Amino acid sequence: GWEQLPRGYVHKDVAGVAVDSEDRAYLFCRGDHPIMIYDRDGRFLGSWGEGDFTYRTHGITIGPDESPYCTDDGNHTVRKYTRDGKLLMTLGTKDKTSDTGYDGKDYMTITKPAGPFNRPTNLAVAPSGDLYISDGYGNCRVHQYAPSGAFKRSWGVPGTGPGQFYLPHGIGAAADGRIFVCDRESDRIQIFSPDGEYLSEWTDTQRPTHIVFDAQGRAYV
Predict the structure, then answer these.
(1) pLDDT at residue number 40
(2) What pLDDT does residue 12 have?
């Protein structure tokens, strides 16, 4: 009963949710109105993105400058917008995939790592301002970008060992700069330095989908 959906509006899946500094909730939906915005009491404030996204909207993150970053695994891009939907930056090339061997259906057909992107999943903004993107359904990597969008590095190969990924699905950045990656099909969260060095992992989780941190440093999975 929280969401006060406007008359005539419907949505199917809500693929992701993010909250800005004014407690406005941004729902990233798979439907006619991709971005739907509500205040903390569930009152509808507006929508945008109509016609801009595929049916595979996936992850949304609000950056420190209040800009939403939207990950569309259907067209292999991550895009940065203003809060009212003006496009600011695009990472990746629309409808162009990197070559990982992925057949479009089976994760086990990913035989090699590749660059950005092949069905990316989520984005985290580190305290440094760097952008970290989990490239999961069709790849096995994390990609790191400068705040400007300049590419810096990637890491990850197929597998279940340390630093390997079997569907990196969610990603979060802790206050100390460590990067936490939900390696979903391996039932673990791997932890890396800001430069991609493997540090440790959490294994007391099953198919972790996403991770975020609050202001006190608590992790929500």
Answers:
(1) 96
(2) 84
For residues 185 and 207, give the distance between their C-alpha atoms in angstroms, rounded to a whole number. Answer: 6
Provide the whole-model pTM.
0.96
Return the pLDDT at 10.
Answer: 86
Identify residue 187 by its one-letter amino acid code. Answer: D
Phi, psi of 107 (to 5 degrees): -60, -30
As a dihedral over the C-alpha atoms of residue 26, residue 29, residue 35, residue 37, rounded to 10 degrees, the angle is: -40
Q: Based on C-alpha coordinates, what's the Rg of the chain?
A: 17
> Is the omega angle on the peptide bond into residue 151 within 30 degrees of 0, that is, cis?
no
By residue count, the chain amounts to 221
DSSP annotation of 114 reads -
- Alpha-carbon torsion 13, 160, 136, 98, what sign? negative
Residue 11: band (very low, low, confident or very high) from pLDDT cuts 50, 70, 90: confident
* Angstrom distance (rounded) from CA 118 to CA 74: 9
